[in-house]
Design brief:
With 139 residues, this protein is mainly beta. The protein is 8% helix and 64% strand. The chain is flat, with a radius of gyration of 15 Å.
């Protein structure tokens, strides 16, 4: 991951082939003391783990996709819980036939390139476990 530009609280990041996006964003935020942010990304991938949250069962159901895809749109946020950075995001991915799959993104491995714009927010967005939903919600 490479920092391309910093303008006040906005960062432009570039990820290269083989890098994992979620861990890269998390590490960047740790290194730069960012506890809250929103981000968006576009790029290309060949490995994505998508999830759908089953509210009744209180667990994520995951699907691993391993083929060339465009990362059409990925939006997310950065928050803080139990002394750790939490990266939460959803994405849309397109295939050679132009069909798409979307969902909560657990993992993205970059195959070509990925460009992210991350906007740091002053202060900390905190999360806490919610018994009713089984999710770590903003508080």
């Amino acid at each position: 991951m490479k920092l391309i530009l910093k303008d006040n609280n906005t960062y432009v990041l570039s990820f290269k082939r083989g890098e994992e996006l979620m861990e890269g964003v998390k590490e960047f935020c740790k290194e730069n003391h960012i506890e809250s942010a929103f981000f968006s990304a576009i790029g290309a991938t060949n490995e994505v783990e998508l999830a759908w949250y089953d509210l009744e069962a209180k667990k994520y159901v995951t699907t691993l996709l391993k083929e060339d895809m465009e990362l059409v749109s990925l939006t997310g946020n950065v928050s803080y819980m139990d002394n750790d950075i939490i990266v939460h995001n959803h994405g849309v991915f397109s295939f050679k036939d132009m069909s798409t799959k979307a969902g909560h993104v657990m993992k993205v491995v970059i195959s070509g390139a990925c460009e992210i714009t991350l906007h740091k927010i002053e202060g900390a967005i905190e999360r806490a476990y919610d018994d009713e939903t089984g999710l770590n919600l903003m508080k």
